[in-house]
């Protein structure tokens, strides 16, 4: 194992993201990329794992927090969770960088990062608790499950928690998306083998692990618990539903205005309904605009009725929403979300919210006074039902709907 400067880690993450964007646009040269990679590789000195651990508080127990390297809602959760855990534990975070092909162990208190080719078995004896927050993107996730299984059996005081941020334990596709980019609702191994040849082995290993090893399994919505149970029905007693807390959002004020503004909050790419949103642009009435607040994967559409507000930080989100004055927020995701921070944020701001009848957003929006669950995952259906909903909510006593909707 070797130690690196955390600043270099952050720089490398940025480099990683930049290269990913370049590759995604198909304008790249492999030789140039290889040279850039060689220049930006970590420069680090040797440091033993024991020396790194000894630098932490000897009066606190040790916790291994296994997380992915991909950002998103899981990263938002992790940031707050790790801060809370650090009050009681020395928290070592493990992440796998698939581009670098290295395991990165970090701790904010010591301000150091350790880089390794694998997760050594001997380190498990250091920890009193392991949290598997996410294994997506790891080189050998099933192998890590075996390592944790062996550790749990070897060390009697070790506890293990598993967080259900996605459907990775059900299928390696993570988001239950079929090759034709439609949502998979079948959980039968025989049918699933057509997409994933080793799905039976995958589910057998995950099933045995989830049944026998974790002390707690935390889901963030009832719908995600039900999907997990559709494959592993014996986990009912073991899965606890604890929704995320959204305490940083305030209600917004939407003034009277002409036309209709539809807001899409959060990153917009394939599984978030990017193609469907672009289809909607082609059939928008002249008095309707779509406002995207978040990151757009690729080049945003050049359309006068599409306003790209760009990325945002959580604290500034209500201010940005008030700037663009949306009449309704559209959660355009076409896969079953396990929670959806954007849904919670939009509801917390008091906006009317529309979503498809799938996953955790539909679970909450269906119970929301100003919620619309769209009947079909289709651009025309979504637009028609959203516009009808906004028109019908005029004059219901809410400030944000008392304006001229149609010209």
Q: How would you portray this structure in words?
A:
This protein has 407 residues and is an alpha/beta fold. It is built from 13 helices and 16 strands. A ten-stranded mixed sheet has the order 2-1-6-5-4-3-7-8-9-10. A hairpin with a 4-residue loop joins strand 4 and strand 5. Helix 5 runs parallel beside helix 7 and helix 9 packs across helix 13.
Strand and helix map with partners:
Layout: E1 2-4, H1 6-24, H2 30-40, E2 45-46, H3 49-54, E3 61-66, H4 72-85, E4 89-97, E5 102-107, E6 112-116, E7 129-132, H5 141-154, E8 159-164, H6 189-192, H7 199-212, E9 216-219, H8 222-231, E10 239-241, E11 260-265, H9 274-281, E12 288-293, E13 306-310, H10 317-324, E14 328-331, H11 341-348, E15 353-356, H12 359-365, E16 371-374, H13 379-392
Parallel strand pairs: 3-4, 3-7, 7-8, 8-9, 9-10, 11-12, 11-14, 12-13, 14-15, 15-16
Antiparallel strand pairs: 1-2, 1-6, 4-5, 5-6
Helical percentage: 25-40%
Give the number of DSSP strands: 16
Overall pLDDT level: 84
With helices defined by DSSP (H or I, 4 residues minimum), what is the helix count? 13
What general form does the structure show? globular
Order of helices and strands: EHHEHEHEEEEHEHHEHEEHEEHEHEHEH
Q: How far is the first residue's CA from the last residue's CA?
A: 66 Å
Spans of at least 5 consecutive residues with low confidence: 1-12, 17-47, 396-407
Return the structural class.
alpha/beta
Order of strands in the sheet with the most strands? 2-1-6-5-4-3-7-8-9-10
Beta-strand percentage range: 15-25%
Summarize the biggest pleated sheet. Answer: 10 strands, mixed
Rg over C-alpha atoms, rounded to the nearest angstrom: 23 Å
């Amino acid at each position: 194992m070797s130690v690196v400067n955390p600043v270099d880690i952050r720089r490398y993450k940025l480099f990683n993201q930049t290269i990913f964007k370049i590759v995604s646009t198909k304008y790249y040269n492999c030789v140039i990329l290889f040279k850039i990679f060689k220049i930006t590789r970590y420069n680090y000195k040797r440091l033993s794992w024991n020396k790194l651990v000894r630098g932490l508080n000897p009066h606190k127990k040790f916790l291994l927090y296994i997380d992915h390297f991909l950002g998103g809602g899981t990263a938002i959760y992790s940031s707050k969770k790790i801060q809370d855990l650090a009050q009681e534990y020395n928290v070592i975070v493990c992440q796998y960088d698939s581009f670098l092909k290295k395991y990165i162990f970090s701790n904010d208190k010591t301000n150091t990062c350790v880089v390794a080719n694998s997760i050594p078995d001997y380190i498990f004896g250091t920890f009193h608790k392991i949290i598997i927050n996410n294994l997506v993107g790891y080189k050998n996730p099933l192998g890590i499950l075996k390592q944790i299984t062996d550790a749990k059996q070897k060390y009697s005081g070790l506890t293990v928690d598993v967080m259900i941020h996605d459907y990775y334990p059900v299928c390696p596709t993570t988001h239950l998306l079929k090759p034709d980019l439609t949502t998979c609702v079948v959980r039968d191994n025989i049918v699933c083998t057509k997409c994933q040849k080793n799905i039976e082995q995958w589910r057998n290993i995950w099933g045995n692990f989830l049944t026998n090893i974790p002390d707690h399994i935390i889901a963030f919505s009832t719908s995600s618990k039900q999907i997990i149970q559709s494959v592993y029905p014996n986990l009912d007693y073991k899965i606890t539903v604890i929704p995320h807390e959204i305490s940083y959002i305030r209600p917004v004020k939407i003034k009277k205005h002409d036309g209709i503004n539809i807001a899409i909050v959060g990153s917009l790419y394939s599984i978030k309904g990017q193609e469907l949103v672009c289809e909607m642009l082609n059939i928008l009435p002249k008095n309707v605009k779509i406002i995207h607040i978040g990151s757009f994967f690729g080049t945003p559409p050049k359309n006068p009725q599409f306003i790209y507000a760009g990325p945002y930080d959580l604290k500034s989100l209500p201010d940005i929403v008030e700037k663009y004055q949306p009449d309704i927020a559209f959660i355009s995701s076409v896969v079953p979300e396990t929670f959806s921070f954007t849904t919670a944020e939009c509801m917390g701001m008091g906006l009317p919210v529309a979503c498809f009848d799938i996953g955790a957003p539909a679970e909450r929006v269906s119970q929301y006074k100003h919620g619309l669950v769209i009947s079909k995952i289709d651009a025309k259906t979504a637009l028609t039902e959203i516009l009808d909903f906004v028109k019908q909510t005029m004059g219901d006593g809410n400030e944000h709907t008392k304006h001229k909707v149609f010209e």
